[in-house]
Records
---
Amino acid sequence: ARDEAARAEVARERDLFRTLTENVSDLIFVLDSAGYIKYASPALRGVLGHDPAIAIGRPARELVHPSHREQLHERFALLARHPERSGHHTFEFMLQHADETWRWFEAVATNSLDDRAVSGIIVHSREVTERKTTDLALQQTRMQLDVALQGAELGVWSADLRAGFCFLDAN
């Protein structure tokens, strides 16, 4: 009866894990110490249009934008070599969608190579393309405003009503 209850509990936990991973939009990868994909969550299909089963065994760097590969390789190698300093490492990079467009992701990587249940580096990623696009547009608008203000030789007033002061930037 105990064995049966234990098996039922394991099956329940497996079903819970499957349900969770199938119903999130974040990407979860488990990479081996050489950077090859050991596990890719089902969200890979919905987010990037890639079949998770085909990703298994491929180098993760194949999905990464060429301009980000070297930096990610260095960070990954450091994470793999120094598990005592692992913690959570956050970084941003672009991954290629199946339609050949590039999408921005923010990821947190954790070295779990010594964890027998995982034996890999867990990379939890979420798409931030819209945020990055908005940030870039805002940055460009600020630069254009700065150029326009400098050319017009106008000042800009800033007021902080709570603190009770005004500031004039007269260029």
Note: The beta strands are 27-31, 37-40, 88-96, 102-112, 120-127, 156-160, 165-169.
---
Amino acid sequence: ILLGMFLLSGCIPIERSEDKNKIEVTGKAEFQSVPDQAVVMFEIQTNATSVMEAQKSNTERSRALIEAMTAKGIDKKKIETVQYNIMKNMQWDYEKNKNIDLGYKVVHIMKVISKDIQSVGELVDAGVIEGRGERLGRGRRGRPAGGPGVGGVGFAAVELCAHAHERVLAQ
């Protein structure tokens, strides 16, 4: 009897509802592509004794950057604010062993996307030079040097992307 039960138990199919109508695929693929767009990040930093002065100066430099980018053929829709900060600008005086109040600092980070990756250098130059700034000098610990009235458009980073090919792979 035990032998019969053992043989019959192997003939009864057991279905799991979770495995029904399910296909599982595992694999690995590599894809190489040539970049077709550039993302350029600009940091616009202004310092002033009052918040209003710092914001006004930053707004002027931001507008100049946008004008410089549109003059180079960038659509305004491809220029956007990534970050905007207003902060008290303090600097440590090591000789006096105390913080010195320098007023206020406004930092505006803008992203510019270009399909013309060959002209990225020109975009950077236009943003930094024609955007009424200079490459920001860095003081101690990587912080911008200078006090009130100092500021400009500083170039932050360039990233080349294969944007169109990412969409093809996702489809």
Note: The two ends are 58 Å apart (CA to CA).
---
Amino acid sequence: LFILNAVCNYYITCKGHIMGSMMERDMRNEIFDHYQKLSFTFYDNQKVGHLLSRVTADLFDISELLHHGPEDLLTSVLTIIGALVVMFSIRWELALIVALTIPVFLVVVMVLAFSFAVVGSFLTGEIAMFLILFLIGLLAALLHFVLGLIQKDVSEQMWLLKQRMDEQSKE
């Protein structure tokens, strides 16, 4: 699991940023070509700062989403799958509870993300991202709780096994 995570992070760091900068370059070229085709009256009615902001800041945000979004999604999905595999190998009943709650959390996050998009004019991107990360943190807390239950169960099983072994050695 950690090796796979390291490979994904390597890919994100090396290949992802190269791909992202190429995408950003292509989008900038397309916008520049489009700006070249616009009439002079368009520029008379627009603020130069607003146009430059579109080319720089907004385009950077779009390219970051386009090249980090799929990579982050892939690493998150692989991490969840890996954690579920480990949990199922330890205690399948508790892992099943976690596996069944994941779709519920995903639906809640998607509904809230949609509502954030609707009310997006009132919320900044940082607040919306904080709230989404908070919901993801709740899912992580649930996973931590279940892993604690699994660890407690394994500790109890080990203690019972030790007790049986001690009783057998006394006989």
Note: The mean pLDDT is 76.
---
Amino acid sequence: TQVTSTGVSAKIILTQSSGTWTEHADSESATTKDINAISGVSSTAIWATGVQSSKGVILDYDGSDWTKIDAPQKKDYEAIHMRTASDGWIVGKSGKILHYNGTSWSQHQDTGDEEWYAVTAVASNDVWVGGKDGDLAYYNGSSWSEQTAPSGKDLNAMVGIASSDVWVGGK
């Protein structure tokens, strides 16, 4: 079993295998990047996102090496969720929502000046993002709709178990 982990704005990427934690360095030196989030679907399909030199960065791990991916937007990325190896989502402080189709990342939605901190996808037509002041947005496969959480708190963690079972955490 292999588990990959990072802390908020960490400059390291750690992996655990058989009870031992090991530091990973990407091909461009992980210590130059602030890693905000990691998501993966297998030990050969891990993605990380964060910031390098005030610009968003996307990293892909293929089981042996980290590769920096050219991002469609050079903004601060806060969260990533890989639903499958060919369906992933990234959000950040720029209001941009990125989608991965198995080949490349592209801008899927621009919500203006929204600050997004969390994302989860139950299906390709069932995606939630959460952000500043309780802002929420939902994608139904054809369009996005914005909502507000009753707390008004920043939402920085999400998990979708099923369409009718989505959990959000914040501060």
Note: The CA atoms of residues 56 and 75 lie 4 Å apart.
